[in-house]
Please model this.
Amino acid sequence: MLIGTLSMIEGPHGQPSNAGNATYITSSLRTTINHLRTHVGNSFCLRGFALVLIHDIARDTILQALLPINGNSTLKRNTRYLISVVVLANLQVLWVHIVITRPSPKFLYQRLPSLNCWVRAIPIALLESILCRLAVPITLLIELHLIQAVGKIDIDQNLDTNNQAGGHAYALAAVAPTLIKFWLALPARVILVRIAASMVPDDDEPIVKLDARLKGGGAPLGMFGAWRKDSWARACKIQTRGLIAGTAIFLLGQLVLPDFQSYVPFVPMWFNS
Model:
């Protein structure tokens, strides 16, 4: 999440080479890690981690208790989910501000973005979350019917992930929806991150050189102004590597321990994923 986010907002360094290619720190994973270690410290990988925990606790515990929508029907669950995305969208903006800037002496509440930032982030956060929400059930339903068609598993019975065959089936079934969700949501995620980066306070110093389009003199970017193909391409490359590594770990763990997924969920690539 950290390195992929930096790749979405970084601008080119120096003059283009003879081949016409711009230079980016985030073009190389090793260069990015060395840069972060130099400018942030060895604990760079934990930047924003506390805010992710606060986001998850607020979503799963506090809002669940405060929202007046009870029941476990699909409609009510989705309504609660979308409300939580709206309420917590500003925390996603704050997380972007924290991870793309140098350490600040400000307290967390002092760095909370303004109401204007919150309002601008809500539509994109909703779009990204809806795409994630739709990808999983549709892909999983198709998968399970295909599995049933070839006679590997009976989806009319509960899948027992505590036995070896059920655990392996779960692992394979979990990969495709996550891949589809990743590809569907990434463009919206790039737009959200770039809009958030355009609203970074002037007294916060970025870790990497910001894309010139993100320096709008305090005016946040719109949805179409935030999109940039090369930013999406770099983020796609980096996050695909992370997704492949996470998939390998997940499948290996599932092969070794049939109920691995109950202890370690599939690698999260963003909030609500």
Summary: The chain has a mean pLDDT of 81. The helical segments are 2-9, 29-39, 49-66, 74-100, 115-149, 164-197, 223-226, 229-256. The CA atoms of residues 73 and 97 lie 36 Å apart. The chain has one domain: 2-262.
